[in-house]
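Structure tokens please, single chain.
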Amino acid sequence: MDDEIRRIDRTLVHKGKIIDYYVDTMELPDGKQVEWDFIQHNGAAAVIPVTEDGRILMVSQYRNALERYTLEIPAGGLNPGEATDLAAARELEEETGYASDSLELLLTIRTTVAFCNEKIDIYVARSLVKTHQHLDEDEYLNVEAHTMEELEQLIFSRKIEDSKTIAALMAYKVKYGI
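Here you go.
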């Protein structure tokens, strides 16, 4: 028996603004065919903006899927052909009103590997310079500065549930011994 799983067909079900939804027809190693959902995502970048006093800038914004506001690190989707470091710098300034020429790649995450190919490169930004926000027309958010200790408390009290934010903050803490 061949252990290979292969896609036989991919059918577009819906083309969305930030994702495309497909149904894949797959052939399993035993020869059976099954249908699996697949969500195509163009990728994203996120950033941990660290102020001179070590606080981390976070954004509070409404998330329709959860029907509530969430506290997250700044992040956003990639524009066509855009490198993730440029997207992280763009999102930093758009969402927080700060810029930085000191971005360091911290980690890469895959958000939902069972059915989505979304990849997020997460950066750390230091040497922040105040500029001004450039929010998208449908973005309404507030910027908050928190210590790592405060953010940990928010994570473990389940007030921060966003996976990219939790992964980023915990990796930042470990890597930099915060």
